[in-house]
Structure formats: C-alpha cells, structure tokens
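Run log, item B.
One chain of 336 residues. Sequence copied directly from the ordering sheet:
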Amino acid sequence: MPIQTAIDSINNNQGSPYGFKNRIINGQMQIAQRATSNTITAAATIAAGYSTVDRFYVYSTGANVTAAQVAGSGATKNRLQITGAASVTAVGIGQRIEAINSYDLEGSTATLSADLAISATLTTVTWTASYANTADTFGTVSSNTNTQIATGTFTVTPTVTNFNAQITIPAAATTGIQILFTVGALTAGLTWTVGNVQLEKGSVATSFDYRSYTNELALCQRYCHVFRPDAVATFSNIGFATVFSGTDQQVGINLPVSMRTVPTASFSSISHLAIHLPGVVRVALTAASVNTNQSSIHRIIVGTTTASAGDLVSHKSALCEFNGTATGFLAFASEL
C-alpha cells in the first residue's frame, strides 16, 4: 500500500492518533465535573441543562426529568441516561461545537454516530444538525439563532445499538455546529440512554475515537472547571488571597487550561467558602460575594466579601479555602 494511501486510510477510517477525529467532546460521557446525577427543570432553555456530564446540555418540556451518568458495558465505561416522569412532552440532549473545532467541516460530508437505547413504548430518536447564525452563538431552544442543516430519525429499541447518519455540511457552516437528539413523551418509568456520540469528517462511520481521560478532561475544562475539596481535606486550598479589608478580598486562581471566554462563577453555598488568614482567623464568605470581573481566560481573579470588616487584617496575604465541607464546589463556566 502506498504511504499516502495508508495515511489516508488511518485518517478516514481509523482515526489519526495526531488528529481530532471526533469533534464531539466527551462523547463517551466519562467526564462529569458538575455531578453524576441531577434534576433537569422543565424549561426550553440551555444554560440550566449543563448539569451532569460535561459539554452536553439536557432539557425537558412538560415536567422535570433526571439526567445521570450511568455505567456502560464492554469497552464503553459510561453513558448518559435520562429518566422520564409524568407529563413530560419532550426531552433533548445536545452539544454545541465551537467554530474553531468545526470550521474545516464546511463543504464536506460528515458522519454522526451514537449508541442509543430507549424504553419499548418509544421507538423514535430524532437528530438535528444546525449551524450558528453568528459565530458560537446558538440561542435557546425556544428562540434559537441557528440554521438547520439536516434532520432525521433513528428507530431505537431497548437494546443499546449504534446508529449513524451522513450529513452534508454547507459552506456557510463555519460558525459552529450543534448536534441535538430529541425524543417525545418520556413519561414515568421510561429511560433513554445515549453514549459514544461522534461527529467525524467523511461519509463512513468509523470506530469510536477513544481519547485518554487526561486529554478529554482538558478539552472539557476549556468550557467548565470545577474546584472541589480533596477527599481527605475538607479545608482544601483554592487559591491565594490578598486582603484589602474584611469586606474586600481578591483571590488568584490559576486554571489548568485557558477557558473559551472569561467565565462566570457559581458555587454550592457561599458558606462553603472561606478566607483564612493563617494563625489568625478563618471567616466564611457572605451571600452574593463571588465575582470574576477582573479575570481573563487564563487566570481567575475572584472578588470576595466576608461577614465583618473587623475579622481580617488589611493588606495581608491569606488563603481562600473550602470551609470544612466535603460537598462544596466552586465552578467556572464558559459554555456555548
């Protein structure tokens, strides 16, 4: 076999070890920084649906559903499973692919594949591919700002099966691509399982592109990074703080990778976080006191507020820590 033919065979059929064959991040549902299980509140919105496995949003209409990272089988370690409830009218699972990771797909054929299973009373999973009208701006479910490329259906059974479809990507699709799977009334007692989601260049569905856990985590951390207490130390350090006064501190946090945009912060409970002046005092933060106004995509500068101006000494170095709780978290997100 000529050398170039062999290279093309690797790139097109087996996935190059040097490339990025699967444009879906965390398609094997292995990374779950936020939670392994969560309730999805019924609403036609996206932001609230980023709550379980990284990079995938889940939404429901009609009633709440539960989204959970579950065990897979064979070589597949994890899948995403949605458990329905009475009055649910529709459920969606989607991922928005940043323009920088999908630009080269324009004007080509791409293949979408996924492992799917659903309870017997439902048989149809609809897939839809769209591109953003403006770079990396897709809108909401009820008010989208994207243009449909193609849609189709898979006839799915309770047995996990791999399905695939070919998509002709138009030349205009250089602004980011959204892949969305939807089902209808996933009512009480019904489950829907999704795994090994892949979008690749070419007209043939090839083997799933397994990436190392380290590499997949780093890809996810461009869009979300979650700090949690170490398993053995609930007072785990988050970053170094400069104390300007009891009501004004700044915490510098180095990020493992550069984020997509300057992120927004969220936390489990403000009382789970504290400013600790070693040898002096540890003071819990107060409500609505965490912001990232002076941050960049490389480093977070968190402005914080404590309970009393007299508790901390001005112009001292301190630590920002978890305040003795094993369940706390501090999260930064820059999702699409």
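Observations after the first pass:
- The mean pLDDT is 88.
- Residues 224-333 form a domain with the Elongation Factor Tu (Ef-tu); domain 3 fold (CATH 2.40.30).
Flagged for discussion on Thursday.
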